[in-house]
Amino acid sequence: MATTTDTVRPVASKRKVPRRPGDLAFSGTALAAGITILVVLAAVAIFLAIESIPAFTGEPTENPILKGESFWAYVAPLVFGTIWASMLALLMAAPLAIGIALFISHYAPTRIASFLGYIIDLLAAVPSVVFGLWGGVTFAGMVQPFYAWLNEYFSWIPLFSGQVSATGRTILTAAMVLAIMVLPIMTAICREVFLQTPKLHEEAALALGATRWEMIRMAVLPFARGGMVSSAMLALGRALGETMAVTMVLSVSGVITFELLTATNPTTIPANIALSFPEAYGDGVSVLIATGLVLFVLTFAVNALARWIVSRRSEFSGAN
User: What is this entry's stated membrane topology (predicted)?
Assistant: First the structure.
């Protein structure tokens, strides 16, 4: 009986393929760009932290801005005003942005959808100072009679109680202007996310007898939930950091109040920095930089929360 021996085929040695100069240049540029982002972010954080030290360690009685009160007592109304105005803007802008995006992506004819998309993109390019001028000079006077009507018939609601501002320059007006400013961002992102919905999902829902709205509710909105959250958080970050529009619209008082129609309004951190920085000196500058550090941490926390929410929805996917 003949025996056979297994022959071992020699394994070919792996040759290192030389990389082309173009590949090396592209990968190096991409790596440098990524590192630059981290370096800039770290540099900003280090600058804010170092320059803020006198605000935390100095004597409040000697600070020209604190004027005897602690830093946290000074910054608390500013944090409240920043979050309050941004949340009001987000609550007003989110439903409208989602509705416009759905109309453009699933209801409007092609020509109208293209035109509306162009208008939305153009609106995003308008400078914030233009929104601020329009809001403070024109829009505030337009909504003041509406505020008086709200106060007359709905003053039993704490939000609409108090003495109505005669100028209309209230926290609600500033929130409306912020909502208009963040509307293009949310609409553009939601529109692109809605258009990425797998066609098989939409066609399957329609084939089962669903109406167009039922198809959107069962197929489009669940698929786009992560993108909608991302757009909302991006818009919230824009609203948190907005300076000129709030500065030019809001009649600042620097208090903590939930009343929306009165002349006594909380202010935001960016608006306070813009108004106070030209006259600040010494440790007063450190206090303003410290409030900027608080805003930096707040914005970073919002973005981290959005990233966490989106990552939890990443398992929902489909093929076109």
Answer: Multi-pass membrane protein
